[in-house]
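Mods, move this if it's the wrong board.
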Amino acid sequence: MKTIVHISTSLDLGGAENQLLEVCRVDDENSNYNYVVAWLKGEGSLAKSFEALGIRTVKPKAKNVWLLSTIIKLKIDCAKTRSKLVIHAHLPRAELYGLLLAFLFRIPLVVTKHNCERFWPRGFSNISRIFARLVYFKSAKIICISKAVLDYLQSINEIPKNSLKCLLIYYGLFKGDACEIHFPNTEVDSGARKLRLGSLARLEDQKDIPTMMVGAKLLLDQGCEFNFEVCGEGSKRRDLAKLTRDLGIEERFILKGKTTDPLRFLESLDVFVLSSTYEGFGLVLLEAIQVGVPIVVSKFDSAVEILGEDYPYLFDIGDTENLKSHIMRVCKSKDSERARAAYSNALTKFSISSAVQQLQLMYDEI
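Not the wrong board. Structure tokens:
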């Protein structure tokens, strides 16, 4: 049996954290792996979900001695049972901590790259590259969750081109069948009924919430009846709240804050909208497909990777008129069959079972 210590920067709702939970849930019946999950900051709202699967969680404490002592105990236990210990780090801060532990205790390190961002997004690019290369050279394997992530990190030289260490393992969707996609099929500009539009997104620049807001304003000016709700928190909340007032849409465009049940929120929507300038993957697109919600999404690289270049409801990044037009096309069910074909292909391509199998093969090779 191998013990895999997953270290994440946080353990709250988010794409990386949700995917880790689903991997552990699908792999719950496999007796060859013993998982331990630790996180470095935050409340760890998903910890109980891991514990419900029988997975040990390690909460952050002062000076991070908590994890150091845990690794020592696991190292001793593995030596007694002649089993192997592997550290699997997620997100940059956890990568650095994993690098230190791997060096001190001679433990194999695996790193998953989740974002199309530099290792140190707000710091100097040269220093970011040095940190990224240190992690790369110490790691046994580097996993990228999409080709978009791999291509980006290679383009900024944080990962060498044609590296044999690098693996492409996509995020996967939950087990089970997806719902039938239900298009609103209404004349959105006639005011026939009030549509429910929405998004799940952190309130940060990357998500480009202002594009959704201006698009909503254009719909309103055309006489559309709708409520547009965004679930998420972030540093731009105050600025975005002011923008809703400036645009005169504060009663139609609601910043709801965090949700504890994102799938239920998605199920309640007529149309899901995502206006990001970039994403490492965009797991929420698969979640929307899973619950049967049609999607209007900006044309960032990994969205094209998931839905295909011919997906009919891809709008140009930052193009508010294009966004408005695509929402209207969805509501009138134009190109719905092409969209359904894209959803079906995505469900087949991005299987959680496939992701787990690839991870297991990788752990076995280390």
